[in-house]
Amino acid sequence: MKLYMRITALCLCVLLLLPPAANAATGDDPETPDYDAITQTDETEGETEVREAKLVLSDLPVSLSVGSKIKIKADPVDFETPPQSIKWTSDNTAAATVDKNGVVSCIGTGQATITASATDADTPVSASCVVKVVARHSFAHIFLSLTYSYSAMGDYYYSDNESAWQKPFGFMRLYDVASQLIGYQYDFKRIVFTYDNKDWLIEFWKGQYALFQYGGEIGVYTKPAVGFGDTPVSTYRTASRNDRLDMEMTLWQEQSDGTMKRVFTRDYDKYWWCDGYRIGRLRRSKPATELQMISRITLKDEKMAAEFEKGMKSSGFSESDDLDDLKNDCYYRDGCDVYFIWRNLTESQHFIPMFVDGDTLSVIFSFFNRLRLSH
C-alpha cells in the first residue's frame, strides 16, 4: 500500500512539473524571466559613448638643426564645436620658439616642449611634443652643403633639378652595384616600361647614403626604344625638361617604439629627380625597411599610366582597390595618377658590408668638430 501511494505521488509530481519546464525551455512562459536577455538589454541601453576632446599633433622629426623650421599641425578631434583658435607656446624659447600658426623656429641647442592649447565648451584641451635642437655646423652638414641644397623648412638636403652634379651622367644598373663601394647601403626598385618610342626607367631608392646621411629618391630616365630593353649596361639619359613628371614624395621612418615619424616631404612639382636626405644613421640599413616611401606620380596620359602600372606589377607591387586601403608595397591608379607605398621590396643584394656603426661615427664626427672649433 505504501509503495502504491509513493508511486502515485511521484506521478502527480511529474505531471505538475512537466508543463512549466517545457514552457520555460521554449521561452513561451511570460512569467519566466529570460535573465540573459535582460542582462544584455540592460548593458546595451546603459552604454553611453564617452566623448573626449583632444588635439592630435602632426609628426615631428626626432631632432632638428639650429636655424631650421618645422610647421606643426594640431587637429581637433571630438570637439563639441571646432575651436576658434589654437594657442601655441614653448617652454624654452632659447632652444625653439613657435608662432601663432604652429611654425617652430630652432634658435639654439637644447630641447623645448611645444604645447598647443584650445577649449572645448569651456574645458581646456592641450597637447605637447618635445623638439630637440642640435648644432648644424658639423662636418656632416658642411659636407652635404657642398653638393646639395638645404631646406630650412623641414631641415633636410635635396638636389636642385637644374644644377645637380649627377644630371649629366644619366643612369645605368651598374651604378647601384658600384655605389656600395663608397658606402651606400640602400634599397632600390626599378620600374621599366616603353612609351612614346622611349624606354623609361623610374627608379626608387631609400636607405643609408655613405656614413652620415639617410634618405630617399625617385629618378626619371629615358633612352631610345631600339629593342634591347633593360640590360645591366643599358644607359639611360636624365629625363629632358619635356619628360619630367609631376610627383610628390614623403619619406617616413619607423622609431624604436614602432611609431612612424616623417623624415621630409617633397611637395608636388615637376621633377626628374625627387630626393631628400637628413643627417643621421639608420638602425638597420640592410635592408632599409625602417624607411617607408609614400608617393604620387602623375604620368603624361592614361596610356603612359597603364604602361607604368604594368611595370609596377612586374616589379612586385600589388594593386589596391581603394586609395584609402593602400598598404606597404601596393599601388593605386586613378587615371594618370599612380599612388604607391614602398617599404619592403628591394633588388639590392647588399653584398658589401659597412664596418663602421653609428656610435663609432658619432665619436669620429665629434673629434672633427672639436678639431675644427679649436682652429
Describe the fold and architecture.
- The chain is α+β, with helices and mostly antiparallel strands and 375 residues long.
- 21% of the residues lie in helices and 37% in strands.
- It has helices at 2-26, 35-46, 139-145, 173-178, 302-314, 358-374; strands spanning 54-57, 64-65, 69-71, 74-77, 87-90, 96-98, 103-106, 110-120, 123-134, 149-151, 156-158, 185-195, 198-209, 213-224, 237-238, 245-254, 260-271, 273-279, 291-298, 318-319, 330-334, 337-342.
- A 6-stranded mixed beta sheet has the order 17-16-19-22-21-20, with helices on one face. Strands 12, 13, 14, 15 and 18 form a 5-stranded antiparallel beta sheet that branches.
Distance between the termini: 124 Å
Q: Regions with pLDDT < 50 over 5+ consecutive residues?
A: 1-7, 12-44, 354-363
Q: Give the % helix.
A: 10-25%
Q: Mind summarizing the main beta sheet?
A: 6 strands, mixed
Task: Explain the layout of strands and helices.
Elements: H1 2-26, H2 35-46, E1 54-57, E2 64-65, E3 69-71, E4 74-77, E5 87-90, E6 96-98, E7 103-106, E8 110-120, E9 123-134, H3 139-145, E10 149-151, E11 156-158, H4 173-178, E12 185-195, E13 198-209, E14 213-224, E15 237-238, E16 245-254, E17 260-271, E18 273-279, E19 291-298, H5 302-314, E20 318-319, E21 330-334, E22 337-342, H6 358-374
Parallel strand pairs: 2-9, 20-21
Antiparallel strand pairs: 1-4, 3-7, 5-8, 6-7, 8-9, 10-11, 12-13, 13-14, 14-15, 14-18, 16-17, 16-19, 19-22, 21-22
In summary, what is this structure?
By secondary structure, this protein is an alpha+beta fold. The chain is built from 6 helices and 22 strands.
